[in-house]
Automatic annotation (TrEMBL):
Superkingdom as given in the UniProt entry: Bacteria
Name of the protein this chain belongs to: EamA family transporter
InterPro entries the UniProt entry points to: Alkyne_AA_exporter, EamA_dom, EmrE-like
Family: Belongs to the EamA transporter family.
Residue ranges annotated for the EamA domain, each copy included: 17-141, 152-284
PANTHER family named among the record's database cross-references: EAMA DOMAIN-CONTAINING PROTEIN (PTHR12715:SF4), TRANSPORTER, DRUG/METABOLITE EXPORTER FAMILY (PTHR12715)
GO cellular component, one term: membrane
Membrane topology, record value: Multi-pass membrane protein
Keyword Transmembrane: yes
Protein's cellular compartments: Endomembrane system
Pfam families tied to this protein: EamA
Record keywords: Membrane, Transmembrane, Transmembrane helix
Classification of source organism: Bacteria, Bacillati, Bacillota, Bacilli, Bacillales
C-alpha cells in the first residue's frame, strides 16, 4: 500500500508550509519596525479573514454548529492569538533565524501533548530528542553570546511553540467533522474577532508606517497566515498532527537564508551551535519516531 507520507499532495503541502513559514520570520522582524506585536497580529488576521470571507462566500461555506463555537474560539486563540503575539514579542529581541529554530521544537511539544492527552506512544528517542532540543534552545537563548544574559524573547517564542502545539493536537477531530478548509477558516475568524479589542490605534500605525513595512504585514496576512495553516490542516486530516508538524524541520533553513538576504542577519557562532543541537534533537525525537510509527501502521493493514 502506498505510504501517505509520500503522496504528492501531502509533499506539496509540506513544501508550501516550509517556504511560506520560512519567509514569515524575517517578515515579522520587518513588520515590528512600525507596528506593535498586537497590531501586527491584528492586521495579519484582518487581511486573512477578509480573503477567507471572499472564499467562503464563493464556495457557500456552511457555518459551524453552535455547540462547537466555544472550542473554535479556544483553538483560534491558541493557534492565532497566543502564537502570533508571543512570537512577535519574542522576535523583538530574537533574530529571525534563531526564532525559527526555537519554533522547530513544536513537533516535540505536539508529540508530548498527544502522548499526555490521547495516549499516543512516545518512545525513548522522543524523550532523548526533547532534552537535546531544549539544550539547543538554551544556547539560542544566550543571544549575542553573553553567558550572563538570558534573552527573555526565547521564553515568548517557546510559549508560541507550545500554544501552536495545543492547536495542532486538539484540532484533529474537528478537521474530520468540518474539513480542513472550513475549520481553518473558522479558527482564523474566531481569532480575529477576539483580536478586535486591539483595534484602537491601528489606523495611526498604518498611516505612520513606511510603505515597505506595511507591505510586509500585508504579505504576512495574505500568505503565511492562511496557506500554511490550511496545508497543515490538510496533512493532519490525512496523517495526524505529528506528521503535519514535521514541516517545521526545514523551515529554519528558509528563514535563515531569507533573513540573511532580506535583513542582512548573520548568525553568531553560538546561534549556529544552538541551532544545530536543536535540529539534531528534533530529528532524533521525531524522524526516527515517524519511521517506527509507519512500520506499526503497516503491520495493522
Amino acid at each position: 500500500m502506498q505510504n501517505k507520507k509520500w503522496d504528492f499532495r501531502i509533499l506539496s503541502a509540506h513544501g508550501l508550509t516550509i517556504i511560506l513559514w520560512g519567509t514569515a520570520f524575517p517578515g515579522i522582524r520587518i513588520g515590528l519596525e512600525a507596528y506593535t506585536p498586537e497590531h501586527l497580529t491584528l492586521l495579519r488576521l484582518l487581511i486573512a479573514s477578509f480573503m477567507l470571507l471572499i472564499f467562503a462566500c464563493i464556495n457557500k461555506m456552511h457555518l459551524p454548529e453552535l455547540k462547537d463555537i466555544p472550542i473554535i474560539f479556544i483553538l483560534g486563540a491558541l493557534g492565532f492569538i497566543v502564537y502570533h503575539i508571543a512570537l512577535n514579542y519574542g522576535e523583538q529581541s530574537v533574530s529571525a533565524g534563531p526564532a525559527s529554530l526555537i519554533v522547530s521544537v513544536t513537533p516535540i511539544f505536539t508529540a508530548s501533548l498527544a502522548f499526555i492527552f490521547f495516549s499516543e506512544k512516545l518512545k525513548l528517542n522522543g524523550w532523548i530528542g526533547g532534552v537535546i532540543s531544549l539544550i539547543g534552545v538554551a544556547f539560542l537563548s544566550l543571544g549575542d553570546g553573553d553567558l550572563l544574559h538570558l534573552n527573555s524573547g526565547v521564553l515568548f517564542i517557546l510559549l508560541a511553540a507550545f500554544s501552536e502545539s495545543l492547536f495542532f493536537v486538539f484540532q484533529k477531530s474537528y478537521l474530520k467533522k468540518y474539513g480542513f478548509l472550513s475549520f481553518t477558516t473558522y479558527t482564523i475568524w474566531a481569532g480575529t474577532i477576539c483580536m478586535l479589542i486591539f483595534l484602537p490605534g491601528i489606523d495611526q500605525e498604518i498611516i505612520n508606517a513606511p510603505i515597505g513595512v506595511t507591505l510586509s504585514a500585508v504579505y504576512l496576512g495574505l500568505f503565511p497566515t492562511v496557506l500554511p495553516y490550511i496545508a497543515l490542516a490538510y496533512i493532519t486530516s490525512h496523517t495526524g498532527s505529528s506528521e503535519a508538524t514535521s514541516s517545521l524541520y526545514l523551515t529554519p533553513v528558509i528563514a535563515c537564508f531569507v533573513a540573511w538576504i532580506w535583513l542582512g542577519e548573520v548568525p553568531t557562532f553560538i546561534s549556529i551551535v544552538g541551532g544545530g543541537i536543536t535540529i539534531i534533537g528534533v530529528l532524533i525525537a521525531h524522524v526516527t519516531g515517524e519511521k517506527d510509527c509507519y512500520k506499526q501502521n503497516e503491520n495493522t493493514l
